[in-house]
Write a structure and sequence with these properties.
Layout: H1 6-41, H2 44-61, H3 71-88, H4 90-93, H5 110-128, H6 131-142, H7 147-154, H8 158-178
Helix pairs in contact: 1-2, 1-3, 1-6, 2-3, 3-7, 5-8, 6-8, 7-8
């Protein structure tokens, strides 16, 4: 076997660089993408499958990423689009809703146990919100995106995102107060 041509060597180097960059993106955003997808689809198994699909698309399209937005905004946009496709799919509509949020019992100090219960209550209420409100809450609070980034990911105006966030907060507050729980 002969030596690699300069072009082949450059292509190999680019491939190794691209794979390393992709691995870094998976380490950095994998858990956040999985959480985001779970908040959309409410099914752990489906969320894991969709997260895998998201990163397959990220890998395939990474060389064509133009940098018009932050990389995390681009990844979240892919995740949201995958969730929307899944939620429109025949398979999803034929599924029985069997997924439930599992609450973990805290075995540490009382303050941590109370904080965990409060988070579980809020998560349960967020999961009961209509999809459009759950989306903005997930992206803004759970993924830490700005209003502008949420608008870009969901392809909405910033005003619409603000309105949906406001309405979602009102619904969360009302649900928690109705259950006799404390709102932040």
């Amino acid at each position: 076997m002969g030596e690699l041509s300069a072009e082949q060597a450059q292509q190999q180097q680019l491939r190794r660089t691209s794979e390393a960059e992709f691995e870094q993106l998976m380490r950095q955003y994998g858990t956040q993408v999985l959480r985001l997808i779970y908040l959309f689809v409410k099914d752990r198994s489906a969320a894991e499958d969709l997260a895998q699909e998201v990163f397959v698309k990220v890998y395939r399209h990474l060389p064509r990423f133009r940098g018009d937005s932050a990389i995390h905004t681009w990844i979240y946009r892919i995740a949201v689009n995958e969730c929307k496709s899944y939620l429109r799919s025949w398979a999803f509509r034929k599924m029985l809703p069997t997924a439930k949020i599992r609450q973990h019992s805290a075995t540490t100090v009382e303050a941590e146990a109370l904080a965990n219960l409060a988070r579980a209550d809020i998560t349960r209420v967020v999961m009961s919100l209509p999809r459009q409100h759950r989306q903005v809450i997930a992206l803004y609070y759970y993924s830490g995106l700005s209003i502008g980034e949420v608008a870009a990911v969901l392809n909405l105006s910033e005003g619409t995102v603000r309105t949906r966030l406001h309405r979602a907060r009102q619904k969360i507050k009302a649900a928690l107060l109705e259950e006799g729980l404390q709102w932040m």
